[in-house]
Design goal:
By secondary structure, the protein is α+β, with helices and mostly antiparallel strands. The chain folds into two domains: 25-136, START domain (Alpha-D-Glucose-1,6-Bisphosphate, Chain A, domain 4); 141-293, Multidrug-efflux Transporter 1 Regulator Bmrr, Chain A, CATH 3.20.80.10. Helix content is 31%, strand content 34%. The strands form two sheets. It has an eight-stranded antiparallel β-sheet. A five-stranded antiparallel β-sheet has the order 1-5-4-3-2. The longest helix is centred in the middle third of the chain and has 22 residues, at 115-136. The chain is elongated, with a radius of gyration of 25 Å. This is Transcriptional regulator. It comes from Flagellimonas olearia.
Amino acid sequence: MRKVYITALALVVLLLAWYLFLKPQDYQVSFKAKTVPGIIYETVRAWNKTLDSNIPVRYQSVDHFEQTIIVKDSIHEYVWDITPIHDSLSQVDVSIKDLDHSLMNKIKIPFTDTDFEKGSRKTLLSFNEYLSNHLNSIKVTVLGEDELFSTFCACVPLESAQNEKASGMMANYTFISNTLADNEVTVNGSPFIEVVDWSVEKDHLSYNFCYPIIRSERLPKNPNIIYKRIFPKKALKAIYNGNYITSDRAWYTLLNYAQARNIPVEEKPIEVFFNNPNMGGNELMWKTEVYMPLKESE
């Protein structure tokens, strides 16, 4: 019996030592969100900019990333782990640690509902409200496999942060449309962007802002404009309704759809815009067709 007691005591001591000194988080909050991991990640980044601390989110993947929040005299570290359940539902687990008062929190938490726990829940309830408002302002409808259109086009090559894509388009909208009109070039459809390179980790996009045109002898020679042809190819297609600033939410939705079905895709989306944001109106009525090209068989 003595050996049993000693073994039991040793296990209790080891468990206590792990809990107090090795357990990575002080507290964990879990909830479900009616969207895909990439949209949650982008919403956390946007929400983070509204906080007083505004320390950039540290990216590892859209499923796992870290956030630092300053609360009075404390530094709180939030570790986000997101698991997709199906196409429109994700499990979110947020591990929270107070870097300056971790040991004291671990001692108090089993016996009382601490200010640290209450504050953490309040913070994540604030995020949930922010996420809910965002999801109510957009709509993504996946249509499945389709074929990318074919067109000749005039494009302005651009680079920007991901959330500045729409600003880049608007800054060049008048330039490219007036240049084409001045040279009597016939526009042959709605403007679109073709993503050339997309790095979520670096928050960077290289893309072409294009107008489909009828090829002619009057194409203006301008160092800021390139001409190219888009060729038809198989792609996953979605319809995005909402402000063009956040149309990348459809990109993440299509990637989640492809991953769940083991469909290999090229992460170089193409978006076709059917509304002029300068005209205003209900943003949920703005329409964007979004294509995620399939990888071609080798």
